[in-house]
Amino acid sequence: MDNLTYKASDARYDGRMPYIRCGQSGVRLPAVSLGFWHNFGSVDDFNKAHATACCAFDNGITCFDLANNYGPEYGTAEENLGRMMDLSFRPYRDELFITTKAGYDMWPGPYGDWGSRKYLMSSLDQSLWRMRLDYVDLFYSHRYDPETPLEETMQALVDIVHQGKALYVGISNYPLETIDFCFGYLKEHDVPCLIYQGRYNMMDRRMENGILSACRDNGVGFTAFSPLAQGLLTDRYLKGIPEDSRMARNRFLKRDVMTPQLLDRLNRLNAIAATRNQSLSEMALSWLLKDGLVTSVLIGASSPVQLLTNIRAVRNTEFTADELKEIDSIIL
Which CATH class is domain 19-241+279-319? Predict the structure, then answer.
């Protein structure tokens, strides 16, 4: 596939993909966004990654979510997006909402990690170069830095917007006790926080400790990452651990997580999904979109087929009170 053969589908905005208002902003995001955390680095098949991204856009997914150290190797997911921009997406730049982040380890020495002004600004400059972009639509502070004053991190975000390097800013993985300050500081400086990004799925409810309600009350959108709990909320592990699975690699998802008790829970959830005519993964994604608290769900996909399977979730995001009660009784 190259720039001479790729033409985006004329049906990409035919209504299959809902677009949800992001907080109190003018931005609407697709209910499902494509995350580049896995499957888009230098160790992965570029042609398959490229085909997956094109399939996403053809099906109304306008938001591509990256970070400086996504790969592996660090930076290579952004480099590959840059290649895709030149091959396919350059004519559609204004239809895309591209996000990146800085906050975790990226390069050696004292200036390649955490939340200093030095790190955030240097990292974004590098990200723009790798992605072959003049600006990103959204730039995140990827995590709270307890040793850098919050004023410094938030002011860096403000200045990044003023410099035209990002249209919007957001925060990710920040603890509840920091949120009011961050939202307030950014709003007072006329660069309101657009999105909070956090880990949220049926099995991990920590965002319900006040973060989701704080976003709602402050007019801030919320994007959920790890919506399938690193693959647990799929049918991959219902009959054991496949040799080619993330759990088999024992890196991000450890083998010892899969206890008999967890397997029983997953099978019971799968039974509920079957009554809804959904797969377990479809139900898990639908569950996140059930009440309007989540603006967009970030999915990873290793192929167009997997992506198309997951985005079927947007077809049925309604749950009965009994279904929700039964899901909670299994998990909580």
Answer: alpha beta
